[in-house]
Amino acid sequence: MSNAISKFAAVLLTVVVMYIYPAAEASQRQDDLSRIVVYNAVTQFVDAVRNKGYISPVMYRQFLKEMQATGNEFDVQMEHLHKKYHPEYTDAANPGTFQNTFSTVYEGSYTSDIMDRIFPENALPNDDVSRIYKLTAGDFFKVTVKNVNRTPGTVMLDFITGALTGETAVIAFLYGGMVINEDY
Questions:
Q1: Which of 88, 95, 146, 184 could make a disulfide contact with 172, Cβ separation 3.0–4.6 Å?
Q2: Residue 63 located in a structural domain
Q3: What is the pLDDT of residues 46-105, one digit of tens each?
Q4: 3-state secondary structure of 146
Q5: Domain span at 109
Q6: Where are the beta strands (DSSP E) in the chain?
Q7: Is position 94 within any domain?
Q8: In angstroms, rounded to a whole number, what is the distance separating the alpha carbons of residues 15 and 13?
Q9: pLDDT tens for residues 7-22?
Q10: Domain count, the chain
């Protein structure tokens, strides 16, 4: 009886070592490669926007195409903070007197605003100037990307551990900075 149990344990260990462990390592490596591809796509897109000062439909589609090459689905969130200066006036004795100072205010535009501009309801061509979302030098632009599907590495890890890791993003990046140039 103990001989049969030891043979079963040996076969089970052999299956784990020969098939499951290599598959888990391969899926983890695929996740690592996906992280590298997404990181490169995000940094190239954000740097291009910061250097050019605009977002065009062609730029955005190319960005999505590079990330979709990983086989994962992503949630892309964009944020544009436009810098504005407001003069400070007194409210006391002489209302409306300029105090020789300015306050800096940032007006935010987010993914829905940007997408409405570069992909309007009408059928304009991709290279139409009205489809370009313009930014100004000194503004801030950032992109947040995270996967919304379960990656192969997550699926395999859940299989091996017998747990359910939930919907936490395995591939997530945040990148942004100040707009440097206005090339439009």
A1: 146
A2: yes
A3: 999 999 999 999 999 999 999 999 989 999 999 999 988 888 887 766 677 778 888 888
A4: strand
A5: 2-178
A6: 54-55, 74-89, 98-110, 133-134, 140-147, 172-178
A7: yes
A8: 5
A9: 777 777 777 667 777 7
A10: 1
